[in-house]
């Protein structure tokens, strides 16, 4: 791999690098390939998670669900969900207890893994249309915020909508809106553009997940529903055990972004 | 109600007519309002149905899932799922045992109801664009066929993809394709246009559900994934008990078709 820029790696090469211990946010990696959020819960919580996703499809577009104990997915044959992400989070009773780079020792036979669409998927479409991506320009993770909008609860799961924010030059906001609307499997159109206060976000410089991203003059903050939403629900709802990706540290699948474009 | 044409009824008026005992297919009723397939199964089958839907989103776009025993839905406040459809099917061990016009006596406290998007929803968009709807012109139910394409199984549920077919004048097929692609929550773009043999359909004049619909010269048969697919899975997989709508006899919700258009 050596000096190959992350953008031109194949998904298998990227996963192999993470399996070998490399870490870091995956925005801009393996361009054109679909990245996914990971949420793995004990089987007796799987219905709650799947129903929560159905009831909150913008933040939780489900791309695949594994059988209990399975560690691979149709989205990336040969991949191992326990080792092939750059960083994980392990939760016990809703408390974050570890942030390892692999979870082989934590994995359980009753875990059901959910792979959920990620907004990194549409960044290729934005970039191709000439829309600047400030967090990539600034070599930062995307900024994510808990909002004051509750998700629709499902069974034992409840929690707030989490959004990712990208500063976009005002004349390009409409184009960004239309391009991402065509990708409902990866969050679709924004939920809001403009005043962060509308979403209950007090200070854009203090994100709840990821990094603060600097706006340039003339930029408007644009907010998309975010796949970290189920993590916020796990923290609020406290299942006995869960494993997720670390925010921004996604699972890179073999699927192509174009596969999820609906028109 | 009297002589009010079904197209101009409100959803509540249509449901009230069905509750009072009126029956018949709902194509063309309460124009602009979203119609839904009903599948109700015992709670211990709910995860299988929801996962089957996630794995087969084109035929099974889930619009709502009720809590066990609940008989109403956020899609139509005040409606009663046991009485407000024009006709039902009751299954025991995968066998069709009754086709009543209400199911109050059959309903159980452990039933979870799934409301699944219906292709009638996009017929308004086709009609508005000048695309003729032959089954409505001919006062027939839409024609539906089991195909030779298996759905991706989920738990105990497996079965074939079922499609609805509309004959469309050849020069308008592309427009129909593009218009419905924008409605992924109600089956989206067609799965096929042209030779029925590609889907293993031997004779268009002998549909598996609904009525045969006559093609006019120059028409091409266009096939969309159909919300009867979960019924075919119930028949193939034989849960101990299930209630569904009768094919073509849908639940008319208060939601508007436009709500499901993604761009």
Strand content of chain A: 25-35%
The CATH architecture of the largest domain in chain A: 3-Layer(aba) Sandwich
Question: How many individual domains of chain A?
Answer: 2
Provide the CATH top-level class of the largest domain in chain A. Answer: Alpha Beta
Largest interface: A-B, 17 and 17 residues
Question: Quaternary arrangement of the chains shown?
Answer: homodimer
* Span between termini of chain A: 35 Å
Total helical segments of chain A: 6
Polypeptide structure, described:
The structure is a homodimer of 263-residue chains. With 263 residues, the first copy, chain A, is an alpha+beta fold. Chain A folds into two domains: 7-119 and 238-260, PSTPO5379-like (3-Layer(aba) Sandwich); 120-225, PSTPO5379-like domain (PSTPO5379-like fold, 2-Layer Sandwich), CATH 3.30.2040. In chain A, 19% of the residues lie in helices and 27% in strands. Chain A contains six helices and twelve strands. Chain A has helices at residues 11-19, 46-55, 120-128, 134-137, 173-181, 229-237; strands at residues 33-42, 62-65, 88-92, 95-98, 111-117, 143-150, 160-169, 192-193, 209-210, 219-225, 241-245, 251-256. In chain A, strands 1, 2, 3, 4, 5, 11 and 12 form a seven-stranded antiparallel β-sheet that branches. Chain A has a five-stranded antiparallel β-sheet with strand order 8-10-7-6-9, with helices on one face. Chain A is globular, with a radius of gyration of 17 Å. The model of chain A has no long low-confidence stretch (mean pLDDT 94). The interface between A and B is medium-sized, with 17 and 17 residues.
């Amino acid at each position: 791999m050596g000096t190959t820029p992350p953008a031109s790696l194949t998904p298998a090469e990227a996963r192999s690098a993470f399996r070998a211990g490399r870490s870091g946010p995956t925005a801009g990696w393996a361009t054109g390939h679909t990245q996914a959020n990971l949420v793995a819960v004990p089987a007796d919580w799987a219905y709650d998670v799947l129903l929560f996703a159905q009831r909150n499809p913008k933040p939780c577009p489900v791309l695949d669900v594994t059988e209990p104990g399975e560690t691979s997915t149709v989205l990336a044959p040969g991949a191992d969900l326990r080792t092939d992400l750059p960083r994980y989070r392990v939760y016990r009773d809703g408390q974050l207890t570890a942030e390892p780079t692999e979870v082989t020792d934590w994995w359980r036979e009753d875990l059901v893994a959910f792979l959920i669409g990620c907004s990194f998927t549409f960044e290729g479409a934005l970039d191709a249309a000439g829309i600047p991506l400030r967090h990539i320009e600034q070599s930062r993770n995307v900024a994510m915020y808990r909002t004051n909008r509750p998700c629709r609860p499902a069974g034992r799961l409840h929690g707030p909508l989490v959004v990712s924010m990208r500063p976009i030059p005002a004349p390009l906001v409409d184009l960004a809106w239309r391009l991402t609307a065509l990708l409902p499997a990866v969050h679709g159109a924004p939920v809001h553009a403009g005043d962060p206060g509308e979403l209950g976000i007090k200070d854009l410089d203090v994100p709840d997940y990821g990094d603060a991203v600097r706006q340039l003059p003339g930029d408007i903050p644009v907010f998309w529903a975010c796949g970290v939403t189920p993590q916020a629900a796990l923290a609020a709802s406290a299942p006995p055990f869960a494993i997720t990706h670390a925010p921004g540290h996604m699972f890179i699948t073999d699927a192509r972004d174009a596969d999820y474009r609906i028109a």
